[in-house]
Amino acid sequence: MPLYDFPKELATLPAIQTLVEGLQSGRVLAEGLWGSSAALAALEFSNRTGRSLLILVPDPEVADEVEDDLTTWKANTILHYPAWDVLPSETEHVDLETLRERIQVLRGLATANQRGKPVVAVAPVIALMQPTIAPEDLRKGELALAPGDEMAPEALCGRLVDAGLERVAMVDAPGQLARRGGIVDAFPIFSEIPFRLDFFGDRIDSIQTFDVVSQRSEETVEECVLVDLSTHTVRKAYTERDKAATLAAHLPPDTAVFVIDPERCAERAHLYEEGYSIEHSALLSYQEACARLHAHALAVSMAMREEEWPEEWGEQANFTRVAFEISSITRLEGSTGHAIAEITKFLEHGAQVTVFCHNEAARSRCREVLLETGGNLAGQVELAIGRLSCGFHWPALSWTAIGDQEVFHRYHQRRRMRKRIAPGAPIRDLTRLRTGDYVVHAMHGVARYTGMSRLEHNGQENDYLTLLFDEDKRLYVPLSHIDLVQKYLGGREARPKLARLGGRSWKRKKAQAEKAVREVAADLLRIQAMRQHSPGISYSADNEWVKKFEDEFIYDETDDQLSAIECIKEDMEKSVPMDRLLCGDVGFGKTEVA
Which residues contact 105 (CB under 8 A, 6 or more apart)? Predict the structure, then answer.
């Protein structure tokens, strides 16, 4: 629902005006912002003033809900700053994706500051207490390059290797680097996309993005920023108190801070503090973390006046009090019929009622329920697409906003989807080779990989895999024939015997293996033929009712789940027995697929 569709009176409400004016000059205590109205009020301030916003919430679950609300209110740029899920003594267990997300948020804040474009950052309160890399170290770790810049390709590779990138034959994941003559492919750990730099001597001729699966160049760019920070550097900032910086140090100077549910924030922070000793940790106390935000404009949002005042934010007397008088809609709790009756009462009292439905199927279902009640209820209730975590009634606007889950009492299960790195090409195991690893050459047998060699052949220099065979003989394999080499995955032998170049032993072993494979294949074909000629249960294709049922599913399916569901459906529609096994770790959604 776009902002211009809100009740027009929102922009002229005295409470909104006081909030904006109060935050422009100092501190505000916003009372009575219930449910999702807190995110709306915060965003209205950012839109009015063009200033960035940091919204602090009690925990990651509330952060997800606020993100949903902001998306519904059509916030432009939303940054989610996640918290570490380990203590400083356990930094080796830090998830790489959490590292990436935190650095990318910090870079987003820096970019917003440079370009003067406002962003909205959402963070659990414990993320504010956890240190991170200092702004100056982040700037030092950014290498901006453009066509025409002078830098030797090997010098660039050396800098990226020093930052922890792994030099491989082909880049297919973050943290990798590859060079082929005058072309350098780089995918730094904390960059969002990989870049391909084409050199002419020591001068950058062009820069393009590329696909890590097909390896094809894609978009030509005028500039790229390679974040050559090492994971060691980022983890070190989490453990050394004397070098500790926090999220606060990265905020643009005019950022306003909006604290939602300060009482729960304090409870969550103090509970977190009990898990470590502040004196011997780089982690900040809640009071110290709050103090680092005192230079920013501050709004503390309390749904009820009875809440305990959070002392960490200073004297209450220094805050401008703004009363919103927004009420909850807990009266909708109960059955769907009871919720519809309460919606009818809101309409009878002259309120505009908007039900936010999480997708088109939910909106159709809601419209059907309203039609079943009779009368003109369906024509009086506005049905919008969006996810509202917690509804509210705003008397000053005569507006009631409701999430569809509060009508049907089916609460949407949000699953945070991390950016997925596309799988590599079939030879990706080779790119994980270390000097000394055993490999198998398709034509010559078992050898030991001793590294890459740069050799001249027919007047051209190229990279070659160097393979060591028996009797200290070496074979140089060009990268164009890389598909002939696989990593050795043999049985229990720790050190397999190296094959002899030109010998017959490898041919005999291949012949024996091929014979055994044929026998196994024959058994499998016989079993499969029997299954294909056995009768099975054929289910009909999906109809409209199945589609409606799926659309109302309360979970967000992952790409893998959707692919598995499609394959299983195809199997179920066949007239032969299904021959498929669904695998997945505990908690990864096998039951949801079923």
Answer: 79, 80, 81, 121
To which residue do tokens 């997925």 refer?
420
Q: What is the pLDDT of residue 81?
A: 93
Tell me: the pLDDT tens digits for 247-286?
999 999 889 999 999 999 999 998 888 766 555 467 888 9
Contact 42, 36 (CB under 8 A): no
Angle at CA of residue 267, ends 265 and 271, nearest 5°: 115
Beta-sheet strands, E only, within 14-76 = 27-31, 53-57
CA atoms lying within 13 Å on the CB side of residue 276: 21
**Confidence band, pLDDT 50/70/90 cuts, at residue 427:** very low
Identity at 28, one-letter amino acid code: V
Residue 144 has pLDDT above 90, yes or no: no
**Burial class of 100 by CB neighbour count within 10 A (0 to 12, 13 to 18, 19+):** buried
- Give the DSSP letter of residue 429: G
Tally the C-alpha atoms within 13 A of residue 317's C-alpha that lie toward its C-beta: 0
Sequence-distant (6+) residues with CB within 8 A of 378 are: 367, 370, 371
CB 289 within 8 A of CB 129: yes
3-state secondary structure of 70: helix
User: How far is residue 453 CA from its own chain's centroid?
Assistant: 38
Q: For 220-243, give one letter per residue: b (16+ CB within 10 A) or e.
A: ebeebebbbbbbebbbebbbeeee
Q: How far is CA 441 from CA 438, 454, 469, 500, in A?
A: 10, 20, 10, 12
